[in-house]
């Protein structure tokens, strides 16, 4: 389905929970979060109702996120039910990788096509610092497990932060020389907890690129979000996602469903449309979702306002 600006909206990102087993500094408060009541969170069968309606409207790509989606019991069953929908061509997850190694085989059998793993550092001490409670070794083993199983491409999401991991760029680059992975460096965004560190930690990918002439842009690589580069002879690739300095709103093809049942047509908009009230009325659910897609905003305004308009934190949206 096309929105009012002519963009083909075919991608639905679904936050199945706001809970997480890590406490990354740009995403979640150190003390954790106030847990929502069970009745406030969409059950998997309710999520599936929305997925089925979305498929009829032209959604063919679904990504399950959190929080951390793998803390949810029976996430593999939700993936399996989604995979049976004829119009859904691609099912993926975004995960911190802590639980992935043990679950990857069952997830693939259920119908999972690929994974995005959040990983901001390759240093054990820094990893514990940024996640507050994480174990880097588990994440690295999860990456290896996914590659072994053929869950490709394995994409690594790395939020680039000045003074924290910008000095590790070469280490990440070397990882792509030996492993067939795609490391995507994402600009820090002024949203949620990220606002607290944004001014001192923000860094543009252009600043990184000018110091690495060995990176060659892949001209024919199609991506609505990332500019792709590669080192000659490397097995993997490097991508840069720049929502602030080089925004890609004109090519945005996604909407987001929160775990409480609201549609966010734009990550940085405060606008949310409540679908939960229509879950027992397919016609109203379809019409409301159709209108939400059609009314998707043209763009965000981070470059002018220097802060996201979103009233939700990143762990409530799923990125």
Give an overview of the whole structure:
The protein contains eleven helices and twelve strands. By secondary structure, it is an alpha/beta fold. Strands 7-8-9-6-5-4-3-2-1-10-11-12 form a twelve-stranded mixed sheet, with helices on one face. The longest helix is centred in the middle third of the chain and has 14 residues, at 136-149.
Question: What's the layout of helices and strands?
Answer:
Elements: E1 11-15, H1 44-56, E2 61-65, H2 75-83, E3 90-95, H3 100-110, E4 114-118, H4 124-131, H5 136-149, E5 154-160, H6 169-178, E6 181-187, H7 194-201, H8 205-209, E7 216-217, E8 226-230, E9 237-241, E10 254-257, E11 262-264, E12 273-274, H9 282-294, H10 302-305, H11 314-317
Parallel strand pairs: 1-2, 1-10, 2-3, 3-4, 4-5, 5-6, 6-9
Antiparallel strand pairs: 7-8, 8-9, 10-11, 11-12
Structure summarized in a few sentences:
The protein has 319 residues and is an alpha/beta fold.
What profile does the largest beta sheet have? 12 strands, mixed
> Low-confidence spans: pLDDT under 50, at least 5 residues?
none
**Radius of gyration from CA coordinates:** 19 Å
Strand content: 15-25%
Level-2 CATH architecture: Alpha-Beta Barrel
Oligomer: single chain
Tags for this entry?
molybdenum cofactor biosynthesis, iron-sulfur, 12-stranded mixed β-sheet, cyclic pyranopterin monophosphate synthase activity, TIM Barrel, 11 helices, alpha/beta, GTP 3',8-cyclase, metal ion binding, about 325 residues, single chain
């Amino acid at each position: 389905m096309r929105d009012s600006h002519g963009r083909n909206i075919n991608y639905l990102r679904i936050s199945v929970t706001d809970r997480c087993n890590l406490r990354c500094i740009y995403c979640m408060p150190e003390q954790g979060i106030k847990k929502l009541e069970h009745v406030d969170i969409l059950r998997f069968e309710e999520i599936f109702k929305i997925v089925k309606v979305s498929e009829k409207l032209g959604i063919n790509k679904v990504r399950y996120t959190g929080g951390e989606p793998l803390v949810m019991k029976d996430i593999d069953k939700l993936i399996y039910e989604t995979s049976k929908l004829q119009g859904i061509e691609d099912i993926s997850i975004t995960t911190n990788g802590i639980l992935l190694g043990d679950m990857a085989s069952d997830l693939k059998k259920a119908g999972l096509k690929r994974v995005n793993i959040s990983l901001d550092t390759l240093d054990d001490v820094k990893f514990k610092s940024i996640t507050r409670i994480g174990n880097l070794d588990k994440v690295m083993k999860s990456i290896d497990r996914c590659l072994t199983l053929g869950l490709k491409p394995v994409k690594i999401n790395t939020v680039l932060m000045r003074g924290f991991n910008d000095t590790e760029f070469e280490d990440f680059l070397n990882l792509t020389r030996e492993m067939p992975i795609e490391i995507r460096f994402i600009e820090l965004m002024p949203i949620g907890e990220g606002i607290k560190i944004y001014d001192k930690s923000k860094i543009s990918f252009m600043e990184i690129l000018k110091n690495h002439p060995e990176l060659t842009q892949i001209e024919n690589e199609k991506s609505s979000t990332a500019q792709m580069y590669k080192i000659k002879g490397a097995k993997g690739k490097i991508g840069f996602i720049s929502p602030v300095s080089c925004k890609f709103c004109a090519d945005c093809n996604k909407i987001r469903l929160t775990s409480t049942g609201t549609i966010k047509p734009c990550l940085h908009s405060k606008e949310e449309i409540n679908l939960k009230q229509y879950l027992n009325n397919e016609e109203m659910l379809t019409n409301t979702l159709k209108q939400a897609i059609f009314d998707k905003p043209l763009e965000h305004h981070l470059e002018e306002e220097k802060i996201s308009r979103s009233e939700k934190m990143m762990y409530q949206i799923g990125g």
